[in-house]
Amino acid sequence: MPEGDTVWLAAHRMHAALAGHPLTRFDLRVPRFATADLTGRTLLDVTPRGKHLLARVEGGLTLHSHLRMEGSWRVFAHGARWNGGPEHQIRAVLGTADATAVGYRLPVLELLRTADEETVVGHLGPDLLGPDWDAAEAVRRLCADPARPLGEALLDQRNLAGIGNVYKCELAFLARATPWLPVGELPAGVPERLAATARRLLEANKDRHERRTITPGGHVDRPDRKVYVYGRRGKPCYRCGAPIRHVEENDQERVSYWCPGCQQGPGPGRPSSARPRR
After folding, report:
1. Residue 216 catalytic?
2. What is the pLDDT of residue 186?
């Protein structure tokens, strides 16, 4: 499941493989941009912004993509077999003489002027993996609506950019609050600790690819214990032994896992009409 750390790693792999080299192949398999051809232009850089990926190309153009639930970018050496999925799932191909980046199942893919990037990422809050991370501003935004459920506030990229369902559930567990507890009811100091913990966890996991680990030593001492609650429906909580619970609200993009023994606050109720912005 792509989250801020996954997008960061994809962007950095693409940048390392393609940046500074002229494109020998540029293929967008979406109707609106199917005729676009940027071959011969140099790919200048690939930058992650929250859960968005910006590939900037010579001539003032940017290829913007968002992975959402199932999208991915894979990098292959020149001549290597592409094994990221079936051919019909490919949405973009960026190639140089030495490497090729292939975008699979990308639900958002558009070509825009680099000068217009703010139209797609300008709404984002402080980027948890960005060089301009601002913890105080992130906390201010997170607490701006005291009545909003914690899970929704964490998922809203206008508050802090990079958190998806996995981190939402794990951060709520670490805060000992259910995802439906209003932010304003968190104990003093908890929002600050949540922002700091979110930053620390994404930093720790940004180079681990599919080995994302939340628990201490989960990737070394206890590889079977990488997360506290996410994906552990019905299994005993590591802290109190209560079975982990699970619910899907609206659709699978709003899945929540929590421990009813450790986490205080209300359970799932009527879904909010305010959908977090990506």
Report:
1. no
2. 97
